[in-house]
Amino acid sequence: MKPYTSEMDRYSYESLFCQIRQAPEKAVAMGEETFDAQIRALCREAVERDRRLLLVSGPSASGKTTTSKKIITCLEGMGKEVYRISLDNFYMEDRNLPLWEDGSVNFEAPECLDLDLFHQCLSILWKEGTAQFPIFDFTTSRRRRDKTFSVRYAPDTFLVVEGLHALNPRIRQAVGDIPSLGVYISIHSDFVDEKGKVVLSGRQLRLTRRIIRDLVRRDAPVEETLSMWDNVLRGERLYIHPWRGSADAHINSTIPYEPWLYRNAVMDAMGSWTGPEAHQKVVRELVDFYAGLTQLDTGLIPADSLTQEFLKTK
What we know:
Blueprint: E1 9-12, H1 13-22, H2 24-48, E2 53-57, H3 64-77, E3 81-86, H4 115-128, E4 130-133, E5 136-137, E6 142-143, E7 149-152, E8 157-162, H5 169-175, E9 180-186, E10 189-192, E11 198-200, H6 202-217, H7 222-244, E12 249-252, H8 258-261, H9 263-270, H10 280-290
Parallel strand pairs: 1-10, 2-8, 2-9, 3-8, 9-12
Antiparallel strand pairs: 4-7, 5-6, 10-11
């Protein structure tokens, strides 16, 4: 596996357009294999290096949750027992969340997490071999009082710790001396035309994912997602980017056929935009690009595809 580098990969827009028009099934299969090959390589490395703890980090809408589940499935296929620990379950309740300078809630900071509780749960796990971990209910913004989930740790067990801040030194400090493998996940490809001009950047694709997911999974209007986007990016610069270079492995979560898969969802959400003028430029750039695509049949997408996390289905 390769470590993180700042240089973006590039996909030829024209080449992909032809592939999807002429042989969509093949284009989907190739895209899935490109991604899944990275998962297999990562799991082989974890097993060969005997790294029982995988710390999976990445920015918003990078596909951390689905990638973590694919890692677990792959390791289980290799005969390993695996548990997933989501840092989202350690979110503070609303009244304890940090603020930006303007008084708005800073949802991006590591201080959003109850790191003392995380450390406590891990300490019990290392000492006793089992521990109860919390479950956070995002519909109520409260930690559930009636339910927890059990995690076991033994010499033959693998743990996948997943979240925005999984590579933060404070998380690694809580992990202690357990041999770990840091994994950074991001959309790391731009789509370029025949002259090499970027027609859809990796960041724009990630915003597309976030808009669709928020709209469908969380009933959040497009304006809300766009109004939060600057702070999301600011939080990434402050709290995630400083530690991505410490990752042992980098996974590019771009699936080459994605833009064609999201075409109709983008047009439905923003094709007749009447929202705030402040977001007009961002919306117009996305709509102008997606309007020129043909919609890829969602029925061609495998059930375990990372893109299922962002499809326009309830």
